[in-house]
């Protein structure tokens, strides 16, 4: 399906690293942890919410998964944990973290509690254990010996939160972005950031990965656990790395899939996405070239690349307004197709083929890709999936770049030049320009204990190089997935089996094949 990995709503991770403050070091010290354990109240358990099938449809993919989801829902417990808004002032304002628990099925062989985070920042994890365990039978085995713990990080879902007005700007005009249009978009973004950041600075300024890690340790204590195991995907890998670095004695087994970079600037992060996508397009071009008889885009990767570049230029010169669809296709649409991962290559190649033909109606393959990638509008009672305000605040509280317009424009132009096929897929942005709150960050470090870092060899969202960098910084075992699909371990039974085995035994081999490349 089409995956729009944009800064304001990516599933992948964005992180920031500078120096720890003295308060951070104190909060993570053994003495502070012991004092917290004495003061922390237990979980306040309460009746769980009820959901209609429509409420859950944005979280699940089939009627069979819905049946399994509901069976798990009947076993789920719901509660809240009280934590300080500001860990530098622990006796002042308190906020709540919403958690869920599905107790281990095999109580006699129970190994402990396993917290799960789906990514973000701003991603809701309240029902994530149920999503995982209902996805396939292998994943369900995680619940045999572990209590599965879901949680909404501060600022998200059923936890204490604040909402700014809509953070997204107006969609750009079709065709190549002009400097004047970019400057207008930049100024509008600065105004939105200032308005958001000043709306509730006391709360928004405390939305950081480090504070979420501290909250997670409070959850551990409230559950009465000596250690907490952790499974994180995408941004959840950064949360896991910060948690492990800040509270090394609190962590049991930890598996991080699609690993974040160790150091972060949002512009560097987006450059990495574009470069990874351009590189992976070479694999797509080779696949399409081997099927030239079907798609007619060229018999060599070079010819396919030339054909796609020509298509991008054609659509930029004359964006297509379809008579049967509101969408307007331009060069960025072609680039968006070019960044798709291997499972979608057949539909992408067919869309390229159809887009070369003259037609007033939308190419069927393009329409199918976009429609299957669309998120179903939630019902009013549906659980939140992503909180845009928290996503923005965490990004911007931790991003030191905050580029001025001239530098942001030069960065964008350089990205287009270096990545001619895929560069247009990442729009011009200076996402944190004008954010009025100070830069904060956490530093990861090497500690002892059980850790697996799962990197996908060809992925463009979380680059494989970032897994190696994180390994050098914090240690652990590198688990290599030979695919290009972000966070696919839980969705591929053979890979998931190795993940489950790791949490059961503490042992893991060096990788799995991941999502296969289509034959046709």
The CATH homologous superfamily of the domain at 23-164 and 208-264 and 441-508 corresponds to Alpha/Beta hydrolase fold, catalytic domain
How much helix, percentage-wise, in residues? Answer: 40-55%
Q: Kindly identify the CATH topology of the domain at 23-164 and 208-264 and 441-508.
A: Rossmann fold
So what's the oligomer here? Answer: single chain
Read across the widest sheet, the strand sequence of neighbours is 1-2-3-5-4-6-7-10-11-12
Instruction: Characterize the largest beta sheet: strand count, sense, and whether it forms a barrel.
Output: 10 strands, mixed
The CATH architecture of the domain at 23-164 and 208-264 and 441-508 can be named as 3-Layer(aba) Sandwich
Q: Quick one: overall form?
A: globular
Tell me the total number of β-strands: 12
Report the end-to-end length measured between terminal Cα atoms: 16 Å
Describe how the helices and strands are arranged.
Elements: H1 22-27, H2 30-39, E1 44-46, H3 53-56, H4 63-73, E2 76-84, E3 94-102, E4 112-117, H5 128-135, H6 137-140, H7 142-145, E5 146-151, H8 179-197, H9 201-204, H10 209-222, E6 228-233, H11 235-246, E7 251-257, H12 266-289, H13 292-295, H14 301-317, E8 320-321, E9 328-329, H15 331-338, H16 345-355, H17 364-373, H18 388-398, H19 405-418, E10 451-456, H20 464-474, E11 477-481, H21 493-505, E12 511-512
Parallel strand pairs: 4-5, 4-6, 6-7, 7-10, 10-11, 11-12
Antiparallel strand pairs: 1-2, 2-3, 3-5, 8-9
Helix pairs in contact: 4-5, 10-11, 12-14, 12-19, 14-15, 16-17
């Amino acid at each position: 399906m089409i995956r729009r990995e944009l800064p304001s709503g990516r599933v992948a991770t964005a992180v920031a690293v500078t120096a720890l403050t003295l308060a951070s070091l104190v909060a993570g010290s053994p003495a502070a942890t012991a004092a917290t354990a004495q003061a922390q109240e237990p979980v306040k358990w309460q009746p769980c919410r009820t959901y209609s099938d429509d409420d859950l449809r944005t979280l699940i993919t089939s009627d069979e998964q819905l049946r399994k989801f509901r069976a798990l829902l009947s076993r789920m417990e719901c509660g809240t944990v009280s934590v300080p808004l500001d860990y530098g002032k622990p006796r002042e304002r308190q906020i709540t973290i919403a958690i869920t628990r599905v107790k281990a099925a095999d109580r006699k062989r129970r190994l402990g509690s396993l917290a799960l985070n789906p990514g973000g920042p701003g991603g809701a994890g309240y029902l994530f254990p149920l999503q995982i365990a209902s996805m396939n039978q292998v994943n369900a085995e995680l619940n045999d010996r572990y209590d599965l713990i879901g949680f909404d990080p501060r600022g998200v879902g059923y936890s204490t939160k604040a909402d700014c007005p809509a953070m997204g700007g107006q969609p750009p005009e079709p065709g190549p972005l002009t400097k004047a249009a970019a400057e207008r978009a930049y100024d509008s973004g600065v105004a939105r950031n200032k308005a958001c950041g000043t709306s509730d600075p006391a709360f928004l300024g405390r939305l950081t990965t480090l504070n979420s890690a501290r909250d997670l340790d409070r959850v551990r204590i409230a559950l009465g656990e000596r250690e907490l195991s952790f499974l994180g995907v995408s941004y959840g890998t950064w949360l896991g790395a910060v948690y492990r670095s800040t509270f090394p004695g609190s962590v049991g087994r930890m598996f991080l899939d699609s690993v974040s970079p160790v150091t972060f600037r949002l512009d560097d992060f987006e450059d990495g996405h574009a470069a990874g996508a351009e590189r992976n397009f070479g694999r797509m071009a080779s696949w399409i070239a081997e099927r030239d008889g079907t798609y007619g885009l060229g018999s060599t990767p070079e010819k396919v690349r030339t054909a796609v570049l020509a298509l991008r230029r054609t659509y930029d010169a004359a964006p297509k307004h379809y008579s049967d669809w509101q969408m307007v296709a331009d060069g960025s649409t072609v680039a968006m197709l070019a960044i798709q991962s291997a499972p979608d290559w057949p539909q992408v190649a067919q869309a390229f083929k159809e887009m070369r033909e003259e037609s007033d109606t939308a190419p069927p393959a393009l329409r199918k890709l976009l429609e299957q990638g669309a998120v179903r509008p939630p019902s009013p009672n549906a659980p939140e999936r992503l909180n845009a305000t928290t996503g923005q605040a965490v990004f911007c509280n931790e991003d030191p770049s905050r580029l001025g317009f001239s530098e942001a424009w030069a960065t964008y132009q350089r990205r287009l030049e270096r990545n001619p096929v895929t560069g247009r897929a990442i729009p011009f942005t200076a996402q944190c320009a004008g954010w009025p709150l100070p830069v904060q960050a956490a530093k990861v470090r090497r500690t002892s204990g059980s850790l697996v870092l799962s990197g996908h060899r060809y992925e463009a969202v979380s680059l494989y190089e970032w897994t190696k960098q994180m390994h050098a910084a914090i240690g652990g075992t590198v688990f290599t997935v030979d695919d290009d699909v972000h966070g696919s371990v839980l969705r591929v039974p053979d890979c998931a089996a190795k993940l489950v085995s790791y949490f059961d035994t503490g042992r893991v081999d060096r990788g799995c094949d991941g999502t296969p490349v289509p034959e046709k």
